[in-house]
Each structure stands twice: as C-alpha cells, then as structure tokens.
C-alpha cells in the first residue's frame, strides 16, 4: 500500500510540473497578430484542463489533450489596437498587453537579411528617427535542432525605437516603414535568419526526404544526428540540413502571417542548378507547414558581386539568379532585382534602403493586390533579323529606359553555334532592344547581365526598376550536377 501511495505522490509531482500554463515565446506583450484571418493560439496546460482565451470581448474555449497540449483559432479581426489577450485556466492566468492587429511578415535568409540597420548607408540617420510604435520587432535567437522543439530558445517582441532597431534587420525595417506609411497598418516583423546558411538548413526533413540529393542524409541525421549542438565543432548549421527549420522556424509555426521575405542564395551559389529544385521545395514546404495556403513569398535576387570580367563567360552567381527567377513559376511569388546595387569587394551591399523599397513594391502587388509596377523588364522573346537581334520584354511598365547619354544599352552578349559569347552593341527601339551581331556567324543565343558582377548594366523601365538578367540558351552550366 505504501508503494502505491508513494507512486501516486510521485505521479502528482510530475503532473504538476507539466501543469504550468504556457504559450510559445511568439506570444508576448507588444506582439502583432495577423489581421483579416483566423488566428491560431496554442500552448500547454494541465492535461485535459479547460483553457479560455479572451480577445476583444470574445471568448474561445478548448480542452488540453492528455499530454497537456492545446490549440484553438480565434476569429479574424480588422487592424487596430492596442488590445489585451488573456489566457486562463481554473488555476492560472496570463495577460499579453499592447497587442496590435496588423500584418506580420517573416524575414528569412542569411547575412544580408540579418544585416543590422546601424551598418548600412545612412543607417545612423535612420536610427535617430526610428520611433514607430506601430512597427513591432520579434527576434529569434540562434539555435539548431534535428527534431521538433516546443519553443525557440530565445525570442522577444519589442516596439520599434532607436534603441531596439539599431541591431535589427535593415531590410525588414525599411520594408516595414514603406508598407506602414503607405497602407496605414501596424507591421510585425518575425526576424528569423542566420548568416552564411544554406536553404536546406531551413527546410523540413519531411520535404528534403523527397529529394534524391538529401534523402539518405536526412535518414541518417534522424537516426544518428546529434541532440546537443553546444560544441562549436558541431554547431554548424550548413552541416545539418533541417537544423534551422526545427531550431528556429518550426516552433513559431503556425503563428499567422501575411507573407515571407527571403534574402538568401549566396551560400548555395556553387550548387545553383540544384537550387532550381530545393528553393521552390522550401517555399512549398513552408506553405504546407503553415497551413495558410499559398501565402505571399517574396525574395531578393542576388546582387552583383566580385570583380567584373572583361570577357563574357560562365558564372555560378548568374546561374543562382536564374534559379531564383525560375521559381517565379510558383503562385504568389515575386522577386526584388538588385543587380545594380551590389559592391564588387563586399558581399554585403550597404544600400539596404533600395532593397526594402523594391520588396515593398512587390508586396503591394502580390500581397495587397495593388495596381503597381513591381518588376523590372523581364525577357519575353528574341527574333534574329539578319545581323540584328530584336529582344522583347514583359514588365516594361511605362516603357523601357536606357540609362546612357547616347542611348546605348550595355551588358548583352551573343553566341553562335560554337557557344562562344561576344559583347555586342545594342540600342533601344521603343519597348524593344536591338542588338548588332556584327561578325558573329549564325547567332543563336543571347545573354544579359550573365556574370558575377555585370557592373555596367543600364536597362530599366521608366519606374526605375532594373531588367532581370537572363539567357536564351539552355546550355549546361558550371553548376550542373553539383551536390
């Protein structure tokens, strides 16, 4: 009998440890909840305990399961605030204050998305005036895991002030400023990124297991991978596909969002051909995991980088940009082309304001349905006419524009059947570009901006958005087959 009593007491102690009413760190004072759609709220409580969530005079009730986990969905609400969100059981109560209803955007990727406002052009001036109470910042600390976690290791919400924004994502801040100013809506930014990382680190095991290049690695990691990443030799996310998805992203899912902004690809450039598949795989994976349908996903195309080359040739960065552009085949996607804003000697261009502005343009179209020109010219077709080639474009906006005193377009190369490319002269003819092929015998292929750093590109539309680099050939590139 005594053993039974002791066992019961031990069970009660364990039961009480689990019993704490708790929500993930993404629920906190100053948070922004997504307007206009149902809002998932989830957490832990006593097993089988009744949980009551109260928001804007409405009550929502759910019973925790046998493990103490619970989830419910609140109604859709319009923009507004500040409000208080309360969560209660018969034993405990939580209250989150200064809650706004607005639009929540995820900021994902590597170091250029992570890049702090204080380290950008005119960053100090921007920080001085960054007192915007309707912009809220949520920062997730770095962590790795190969298995799902209950919550992120570190995270906090804060109101945008000069003190809180100086180390925050510059791109995210400039994007939020533009959207908030033009749409008059509170903005929440989920800053979840890690410099130098590859896209497969941000993709789930479920998704990567479907790709032949990663399926065996995923199976091995799931069975034999580390559970402790505190050792610096182990704490290397690029060595562990899925590690950032589970360590930093998955614990925030399914927190309702408006969409995602993504700046990444530098670390995948050596495998650009593979990126054609794993980048859209990641996007589709996120959308499936969130369960929000095809939410807007907008990325930054890689900027120009490294020293310019005198002759046209192959480029892994050009192939990565091509893979990014090909991913526009997915619904509700767009990209911000910044081929004119890079720096030859720095992989981190300091002009983040332009990047934020171009992302905001794309968001206005894809996420908000506004009638705006959101893309620069993109290749439509080519026609060989004797010793000339005529190029037509989509997304010309109010018209093509060549930024050159004499109207000459730069950055075009043409090849014949020998696959040897040569620079060619070109000029604008209305909304087309005409290239002079000169002595090139039987020209068959055109490339524009096809280099690590095509630093002299000057083709835009009248709205000031640069043309997307492209090629008309499908010849095997230098990253084909690389894993």
From TrEMBL:
**Keyword annotations for this protein?**
Hydrolase
According to the lineage, what is the superkingdom?
Answer: Bacteria
Taxonomy of origin reads: Bacteria, Pseudomonadati, Bacteroidota, Cytophagia, Cytophagales
Q: Which segments constitute the Sialate O-acetylesterase domain?
A: 103-363
Entry annotated with the keyword Hydrolase: yes
List, alphabetically, the PANTHER family matched. SIALATE O-ACETYLESTERASE
> What's one Pfam family the UniProt record gives for this protein?
SASA
Species this protein is from: Cyclobacterium jeungdonense
What InterPro entries does UniProt report for this protein, alphabetically?
SASA, SGNH_hydro_sf, SIAE
Q: What is this protein called?
A: Sialate O-acetylesterase
